[in-house]
Amino acid sequence: MHGVWTALVTPFQPNNELDLNAFRKILQEQKAAKVTGVIPCGTTGESPTLSVDERKALISTALHELKGSGVRVFAGTGTNDTRESIELSSWASGQGVDGVLIVTPYYNKPSQSGLEAHFKKIAEAVHCEVMLYNVPGRTGVSLTSETILNLARTPRIRSLKEATGNVAFTSEIIDTLDQAGISLDILSGDDATFLPLLSVGAVGVVSVSSNVIPRALIELYLAASAGDYQKASVIHRRTYPLFRDFFIDSNPGPIKYAMEYAGWCNSRMRAPLTPLTHSNREIVKTSLMRYGISHSPHQEPSQLTSQLKGSTP
Predict the structure, then answer these.
(1) SS3 of 100-163
(2) Catalytic hit among 133, 221, 257, 261
(3) Does residue 284 form part of some domain?
(4) Which range of residues forms the domain containing residue 68?
(5) Which end of the chain has fewer surrounding CB within 10 Å, N or C?
(6) Is 161 a catalytic residue?
(7) Residue 304 within any structural domain of the chain
């Protein structure tokens, strides 16, 4: 589970139906950038407003477009209903996904024992890897380090998308696992904490920004993995304004505007999400221009080695 994973946006047509043609173009760009993997139907993909049939269409399209490329596909199949999560996860597993991303159940506010039972029942129903997704800012509930340890003993649960934004909590999780001699791959669920979490033992990122700048995230990861934290820091500081401004409003509003600006798809979202205000669009636009992304189709600035020459930390 090491590396850069892109939490894919879901493009919509003017009639609010899926735009699978735009989705295919995005997948081809992710393949060309050589990301480790992609995750359709997650938070960034507006999973709460996708029907089961739409989720299946997006997952199937990702598998078809990326077949044989080496880019792995993890499907966002978690909901706040254990039964529905099992059904969709089992279907995705049967289609050949490399894994499923399972969010902590939202709104229900289950206990830690309820969370543990939820994830274990899903893991028992699939034949692929399971990635836990801890994002209390959206779900109202957080996994504890003890629950994560218990779940890590389940053979198919091999990774955690940690999106609390709390570096100390990640260190606590790693220490709890180390004390028990249990391994679990931890990936940052927030672009802004990607480098800090790598420094304390995380092994990758599930990224929003890599929809637009996948190569930059990959170069940051490779630099840190090689122990070149000076270079990684330079990349982080250059990309940080995007990491920050892509969350100036509810995700995926800002990243969808960025995708429209860069020519990949329109910025349309489904209700209850609404378009960015003019002032927020201008903030995102300014950061895109500052980074070097112009208002033209399919352009990520050539990365990053030449620009790093002569840079100081």
Answers:
(1) EEEECCCCCCCCHHHHHHHHHHHHHCCCCEEEEEECHHHHCCCCCHHHHHHHHCCCCEEEEEEC
(2) 133
(3) no
(4) 3-227
(5) C
(6) yes
(7) no
CB–CB of 10/23 below 8 Å? yes
Catalytic residue among 25, 56, 161, 256: 161
Identify whether 143 is part of a domain: yes
Residue 82 inside a domain? The answer is: yes
Cβ contact 193:167 at 8 Å: yes
Query: Cβ(53)–Cβ(88) under 8 Å?
Result: no
pTM above 0.85, yes or no: yes
Cα(81)–Cα(101) distance, rounded to whole angstroms? 14
Mean pLDDT by 10 residues, the chain (313 residues): 96 97 98 98 97 98 98 97 98 98 96 98 98 95 97 97 96 98 97 97 98 98 97 98 97 97 96 97 97 73 44 36
- For CA atoms 63, 124, 135, 175, give the dihedral sign: negative
> The CATH number of the domain where 115 resides is what?
3.20.20.70
